[in-house]
Design a protein that fits this description.
Structural class: alpha+beta
Mean pLDDT: 93
Order of helices and strands: EEEHEHEHEEHEEH
Low-confidence stretches: none
Strand order of the largest sheet: 1-2-3-5-4
Shape: globular
Distance between the termini: 41 Å
Oligomer: single chain
Strand content: 25-35%
Length: 248
C-alpha cells in the first residue's frame, strides 16, 4: 500500500503527479507540436508529414501509411553534458529502445490505413531531463499528433480521423516499500523497482516495462503500481483533452 507520509524531494504525496503543462505550437514549422513539461522534465514533441511511405511498404505492397518516431536528448539536458549521438555515427541502444517505444505507443491508437500514402514523423527532443523522459515523450507526442491530425482533417488532406483513442504514459516505482507515482531523477536512481506504463483512454495497456533493481516485487505491489499509474494517466489524458479543446 502507498503511505501518505512518504518524503519526496519536491514534497509531493506518493500518488501525485509533478505539475503538468503543454505549450502548443512550440515548433512553428511543424504541423503539430507541444512543449511537454512534467515537473523539471521538458520535452519538445513535434509532428511533420511526408507524402510518401517507407520503401519496405512499397516493396511488400502494404496499404495505408506509416508513423515513426525519433528521440534525442540535447547536450545540455542534464547537468553533465551529453555527447551528441550524431558524433558517434549512430543512436545508442537506449535511444533506439525509447524511440521504438514511442512509435509503438502511437501506432497502437492509429488506424494506419486511414493515413493514405503518407508518413507521420514524430520527433521528441529532451530539453531538460529530470526523470520520466520516455513517458513524457509519449504523452507529449500524442498531444502533438492530435493537433497535427486535426489540421490535416481541417485542410481536407485526411477524410477520416485515423486516431482511435488517446494514449499517455507515466512512471511508477517502489522506494523503501512505498509505491510512488511519476518519479523524478533522484527517485528513479534510488528506486527498488522502476516501471513505465503506457495506457489508452479506454484503460487498455499498450506496454508495461518494470524492473526490480535489488528486491523482487510481489503481485500485490504490481497491482498497486498499475493502479496508481492508471490514476496518473487519467489525469494526463484530461490535460491532453484540455489542450485539444483550447486549440479548436
Amino acid at each position: 500500500m502507498t503511505r501518505s507520509n512518504t518524503k519526496r524531494p519536491d514534497g509531493r504525496k506518493p500518488g501525485v503527479l509533478r505539475p503538468v503543462a503543454f505549450t502548443p505550437d512550440f515548433a512553428p514549422s511543424a504541423l503539430g507540436s507541444v512543449l511537454m513539461a512534467m515537473g523539471r522534465t521538458r520535452v519538445v514533441c513535434a509532428v511533420t508529414v511526408e507524402d510518401d511511405v517507407p520503401r519496405w511498404m512499397k516493396q511488400d505492397k502494404v496499404a495505408g501509411g506509416w508513423l515513426t518516431a525519433e528521440y534525442s536528448m540535447l547536450p545540455y539536458a542534464s547537468e553533465d553534458r551529453i555527447r551528441r549521438e550524431a558524433s558517434s555515427g549512430k543512436p545508442s541502444g537506449r535511444t533506439q529502445e525509447i524511440q521504438r517505444l514511442i512509435g509503438r505507443s502511437l501506432r497502437a491508437v492509429v488506424d494506419l490505413n486511414k493515413l493514405g500514402q503518407r508518413t507521420l514523423w514524430v520527433d521528441c527532443d529532451v530539453l531538460q531531463a529530470d526523470g520520466g523522459t520516455r513517458t513524457a515523450s509519449i504523452t507529449g507526442a500524442y498531444a502533438a499528433l492530435r493537433l497535427a491530425v486535426d489540421r490535416l482533417l481541417a485542410d481536407g488532406r485526411l477524410t477520416e480521423d485515423p486516431i482511435r483513442e488517446a494514449v499517455a504514459a507515466v512512471s511508477v516505482g517502489i522506494i523503501d516499500g512505498q509505491v510512488l507515482l511519476d518519479l523524478c531523477y533522484a527517485e528513479d536512481a534510488a528506486a527498488d523497482v522502476d516501471m513505465n506504463v503506457v495506457m489508452t483512454a479506454s484503460g487498455k495497456f499498450v506496454e508495461v516495462q518494470g524492473t526490480a533493481e535489488e528486491r523482487p516485487f510481489s503481485a500485490d505491489q504490481l497491482q498497486a503500481m498499475l493502479g496508481l499509474a492508471g490514476k496518473g494517466i487519467k489525469h494526463l489524458l484530461a490535460e491532453q483533452r484540455k489542450l485539444r479543446n483550447s486549440a479548436a
